[in-house]
Design a protein that fits this description.
The chain has 120 residues and is mainly α. It is built from four helices and no strands. Helix 1 crosses helix 2 and helix 1 runs antiparallel to helix 4.
Length: 120
């Protein structure tokens, strides 16, 4: 039963991450393109940053890499937030909902499942 609960939790995590990814494609991608047009050297050390929000799959990968794995959060988020402060809602919102909401839900499901198994 733990595997079934974990599978549903991971599906829920992916759905929430995909919703944030769709917002990133619609809102963040045009802003990154505009930043690059104004300053072509802004993402010189990170060529992947220019296409990180170009599709929902790329944005999902970005969210998984930055929010769940904690890898290079500031490489793309900080320059975009500095140029367009309103984008912090998307970056911080995805961080809060995924880390403090969904991932804690997964931990709670695992702990509850093991507690039930121990009681039996």
């Amino acid at each position: 039963t733990c595997l079934k609960a974990l599978a549903w939790s991971f599906i829920f995590c992916f759905v929430v991450m995909t919703i944030w990814a769709m917002l990133m494609v619609e809102i963040i991608f045009p802003l990154i393109q505009e930043m690059h047009r104004r300053d072509p050297e802004i993402f010189e050390e990170c060529p992947q940053c220019l296409r990180a929000t170009s599709s929902v799959m790329d944005a999902n990968l970005l969210l998984f890499k930055t929010v769940i794995a904690g890898d290079s959060w500031g490489t793309i988020a900080v320059p975009v937030i500095e140029a367009y402060p309103a984008t912090a809602i998307i970056f911080v919102g995805s961080l809060l909902t995924l880390v403090f909401g969904v991932l804690n839900l997964i931990v709670a499901v695992v702990v509850d499942t093991f507690a039930d198994a121990r009681d039996r």
